[in-house]
Specification:
This protein is of the alpha+beta class. Helices cover 32% and strands 16% of the residues.
């Protein structure tokens, strides 16, 4: 199997010019990406909660969002975005779990153009 050459294999649109065998390897395993409900209903619950707390702490340190009361948002006619948690297990090559990763994902498709703050 030949190596992927970004100069040769990627077309002007930034897409693969033809199906490359490595594309098939990019599919995530559902065993490594449980849903929120699945993650919190297993014995790994404390690991997932710790990963979620790390994500929230990281976002707070970056001042990535502002928490407002629902009544304040309603009065300001603010567009409050829905969100979801994406959970993933990072593994070593031998299959052991390296760490648990949680990402908070706001629904960008619900954004509206307008002022911020």
């Amino acid at each position: 199997m030949r190596q992927l050459d970004l100069n040769r294999d990627i077309d002007d649109d930034g897409l693969l010019a033809e199906l490359h065998p490595l594309v098939l390897l990019a599919k995530a395993s559902s065993a490594n990406t449980p849903s929120f409900r699945e993650g919190l209903s297993r014995e790994e619950r404390t690991d997932w909660i710790a990963a979620m707390k790390m994500e929230i702490d990281s976002l707070n340190a970056k001042h990535a969002y502002a928490t407002v009361s629902r009544s304040m948002a309603t009065k300001a006619k603010a567009n409050v975005l829905g969100s979801m948690w994406a959970l993933m297990r990072e593994r070593y090559p031998d299959g052991r779990i390296r760490y648990y990763k949680a990402r908070w994902c706001p629904r960008g498709d619900q954004q509206r153009e307008g002022r911020v703050g």
